[in-house]
Amino acid sequence: MTNLYFMVPAAVISFALVIYSIKNSKTALLFLLILFSSSCLFAQVTPVDTIKPGNGPVKEQLKQIKNAKKTIKDTTGNQPAKNPFIDTTIRNKYGDLLNDDPKYNPKYPFWKPLAGVLGVNLFTWSMDRFLLNESFSHIGPATWKYNLRKGWEWDDDRFGVNFIAHPYTGSMYFNQARSQGYNYLQSVPFAAAGSLMWEYFGENTRPSYNDIINTTANGAFLGEVFYRLSSNIYDDRTRGGERVFREIFGGLIDPVRGFNRLLEGKTFRRTTTDVYQKEPLNITLAAGIHKINVDNNTILGNGPTNTLISLQIDYGNPLEDRKRKPFDYFTFRTEFSFGSGRKVLDNVLGYGVLFGGNTHLGKLSMLYGAFQYYDYWDNMTFELGTIGFGGGVVTKLPITDDIIAFTTVHLAGVPLAGNSTRFGPDTSQVRDYTYNNGFEAKFASTINFGTYVTTSVEYYYYLLHAFYGPASNNHIGILKPKITVHIVKNLSLGFEHFIYYDNRYIKTFPAIHSVRTEQKIFLSLYLEDPQRKGDYEQ
Q: Which of 388, 396, 342, 341 shows the shortest CA–CA distance to 368?
């Protein structure tokens, strides 16, 4: 058990606030960032990213480098063609590094990130013990002996603690290694080590299976997302106020990395070249109203109306022909709902490629491979959290010059899931969900009709078997058709209809069939990376 749950909404909000501001360094955009929404560093793109001392102001040189990195469109797939001045063995076709430069990002001895993992646990325990005085934080030799002797269990912590707070903590363990020169796979054991350390010695309750699984798997997912996004923000070539903002916002997204940069002297380091892997980013921000219907099969009921704020990030171009390593492409979405009830963080959803390849079938461009999935739904009707590993395809098909279809299909195994009980979630502070395993399938298709209208449909299906809690088999479906109409520039007006259905077959109770619908009306701001324009949109 941990009290980091209260940190997560703030962390995700900070994360959302960071992503748009670094698009350029003008004061007006940074002020807009602080006042309201998000900020994003679009990857600088140039065949040569080196600044030359004595060749004019650094800021002006960086501007010239950015302007020089222009790609051209081919005539068949509307994809940027390879620039002959870019060495694609070390850079993507936009001119950015495919890997962090090891000269400036060396791999430190393993004891250093391990010491950092210990530091994370000591800090967390100190907050729980001396600031919050939580009962579980009263530890000592007697509790350690008890934990070692009694062994493991499935715990009764509430949903948000297990499926958000523990993954967030795991991301900090993970990034102790990731920020010290270790790659994705090499950093995962540090997330597991941090969890083991905490489970046995950080609290006086028995270690739990669900915690080490969630902390390690979903912690690695969030950790890599935070690391990649902070890399798009950090630029050791910059100076002055821009450098200060980059360091602050990069640290907000990935606090562990920001702290390690300070200890390692990277915060104030000046380089003449960019030294971090960067990929293009597309960002969608939305705000509007959220109608929640309370009765089964109700289309427009008498339920509450909330305010919604959402953020979607598409990182990397899945259709670029290149070798793939973990999270060179990922999507990450989160939505907040303000109004009725105590639950604010409505969902956090994402997936990232682990390995795969690209191919073309006529006009159809495709990425295929293995993916990792993270699903978190938490509202007044249902709770559902899953860890997923499986296969998927991402495609783009130009139907005409102005009509383009983007489609994703995924099928994954679910080694661990949390699913609300037959009575639905309550407002208590204890577990009101079962532990499950099973399968999940996802389908999403978006059609752009020029720059005027975009239609999309998403479908999620979960087949879950409850192995801890009331024995049951649950069939859960979520359908989300949506349409957005362009208003002006990057601003659109959208409508989404949300349908959740659940068929529960419980051994000791009659079968339960439930349906819930929602409607959302929102304004959407689409921030497309100029260098990725037309490449991919979801």
A: 396
Is 538 strand, coil or helix?
Answer: coil
Site of tokens 């309201």: 36
Splitting the chain (538 residues) into consecutive groups of 10 residues, what average pLDDT does each group show?
A: 44 40 36 36 50 72 66 44 66 90 95 97 96 94 96 93 96 98 98 98 96 98 98 94 96 97 95 93 95 70 86 95 94 93 90 96 95 94 94 96 94 96 60 94 95 94 95 95 94 95 86 89 90 60
Shared-domain flag, residues 332 and 461:
yes
Residue 228, token pair as written in the block: 């990649």
Residue 131 tokens, joined: 């600031």
5 is a domain residue:
no
Q: Mark whether 16 and 151 lie in a shared domain.
A: no
Q: CA-to-CA distance for 411 and 115, rounded, in angstroms?
A: 38
User: How many C-beta neighbours within 10 Å does residue 240 have?
Assistant: 11
**What's the confidence (pLDDT) of residue 77?**
43
pLDDT for res 32:
35
Q: Is 339 within a domain?
A: yes
Domain that holds residue 120: 106-228
**Structural contact between residues 181 and 129, judged by C-beta atoms closer than 8 angstroms:** no
The whole-number pLDDT of residue 294 equals 73
Domain count, the chain: 3
Q: What was the pLDDT predicted at 83? A: 60
Establish if 259 belongs to a structural domain: no
Model pLDDT, residue 53: 73
Beta strands at 345-361 and 403-420: parallel, antiparallel or unpaired: unpaired
State whether 405 and 483 are in the same domain.
yes
**Same domain, residue pair 325 and 382:** yes
Token pair for residue 197?
């350390």
- Contacts by 140-149 with C-beta closer than 8 Å and gap 24+? 143/203, 143/204, 144/200, 144/201, 146/204, 146/206, 147/199, 147/200, 147/201, 147/204, 147/205, 147/206, 147/207, 148/200
Are residues 59 and 14 part of one domain? yes
Q: What is the pTM of this model?
A: 0.87
CA pseudo-torsion sign 421, 209, 389, 228: positive
Structural contact between residues 487 and 521, judged by C-beta atoms closer than 8 angstroms: no
- Is 299 among the domain residues? yes
Separation of alpha carbons 450 and 197, rounded Å: 54
Residue 427 has a pLDDT of 55
By CB atoms closer than 10 A (0-12, 13-18, 19+), residue 88 is middle
Considering the domain architecture, whether residues 189 and 94 belong to the same structural domain is answered as no
Tell whether 487 and 385 lie within a shared domain. yes
Dist. CA 380–CA 220, nearest whole Å: 28
369 and 385 in a common domain: yes
**At 334, which CATH number?**
2.40.160
